[in-house]
Design goal:
Layout (H helix, E strand, L loop, with lengths): L9 H13 L2 H8 L3 H15 L4 E4 L2 E4 L1 H27 L5 E8 H6 L1 H11 L3 E8 L1 H9 L5 E4 L8 E15 L14 H5 L4 E3 L4 H13 L7 E3 L2 H9 L5 E4 L4 H6 L3 E3 L8 E9 L6 H12 L1
Length: 301
């Protein structure tokens, strides 16, 4: 199938995405080493090609129109695919060995990263991987300090100076020991009752804790945690012992639910405890090459 004649140039689409990410046509032009008039001319040519107004121009700057925002949303996966293609071709040419420096929060590292790296190995077999694991706050610090090029975190927000793309979704569930009163109740539990109960929580900086606390604060004034523990394994052990209920990723308690050492508590509205997994990178340094390839695998998984 031939491309339609109005297909935009990738470099101009990339310029438009940079305007969206940096909030300024001038900053986007500077990042590419071109003048602002040259950048403006390329965007005007794109507008003429698509027959759409993409930027609202004013003496104080430029911002995306609704049509421009839509084009940016469609352009991002196109550009990611192009970067992945170039990375793959580069790796195949001369069997070059590429390096991947990433960091991931514990849930993602345990339950998503292995399958993503397996898929990456099939696409780019000569890639070496250095993975660092921590809570979401620690991962954001590693990305911000350039210790890694790409991070994967949970939770509702990312730190200043970073950009993010949603790469998946996760379900959080309330779990208790089999002897807990919640395990034998006849009907579903209201989220307000969960919010009023001291829970076992991860330490501050954890994406799981941030996601849970964000939900609880929306429906009530949560009491102090029953305990703050530094790992999911420690929380599961305390929950199994009957210390208190916990809210954890379903991914992390699959074995305990199967063997009956923990029981999932039905909620009247389970949708409130869903969260997003995000890829993160330094602002203005959108992933390219093998990093873009891994991010695309994460989105497809």
């Amino acid at each position: 199938m031939r491309l339609p004649p109005q297909t935009p140039r990738l470099d101009v689409l990339d310029l438009l995405v940079s305007v969206a990410e940096l909030g300024s046509l001038g900053l986007a032009a500077r990042e590419r080493g071109i003048s602002q008039p040259a950048a403006s001319m390329r965007i005007r040519a794109l507008e003429a090609q698509l027959r759409l107004v993409l930027l609202e121009r004013s003496p104080t700057g430029s911002k995306l129109t609704p049509a421009g925002a839509a084009v940016v949303e469609w352009a991002i996966p196109v550009l990611d695919a192009a970067r992945a293609l170039v990375a793959g071709a580069s790796a195949l040419h001369g069997h070059q060995r590429t390096s991947l420096r990433i960091a991931a929060s514990m849930t993602i590292a345990d339950h998503r990263i292995p399958s993503w790296l397996l898929a990456l190995h099939r696409e780019l077999p000569d890639t070496s991987v250095a993975l660092r694991v921590g809570n979401s706050h620690q991962v954001m610090e590693l990305v911000h300090n350039r210790d890694v090029d790409l991070g994967f975190v949970e939770g509702p927000s990312v730190a200043d100076g970073l950009e993010a793309r949603v790469v998946g979704e996760d379900e959080l569930i309330a779990v208790v020991a089999p002897g807990h009163a919640w395990a034998v109740r006849s009907g579903p539990l209201d989220i307000q009752e969960v919010a009023a109960t001291p829970l076992l929580l991860r330490e501050k900086g954890s994406g799981t804790r941030e996601a849970v606390w964000d939900v609880l604060r929306r429906v009530g004034d949560p009491p102090a945690p029953a305990a703050e523990l530094g790992s999911t394994a420690a929380i599961k052990a305390a929950a199994r012992a009957g210390v208190a209920p916990a809210v954890l990723s379903r991914l992390s308690v699959e074995e305990e639910l199967k063997d009956g050492s923990l029981v999932s508590v039905a909620l009247s509205d389970s949708s409130v405890l869903r969260r997003e997994f995000r890829a993160i990178w330094r602002r203005g340094a959108r992933p390219t090459g093998v990093n873009a390839a891994l991010m695309n695998i994460a989105v497809r998984s």
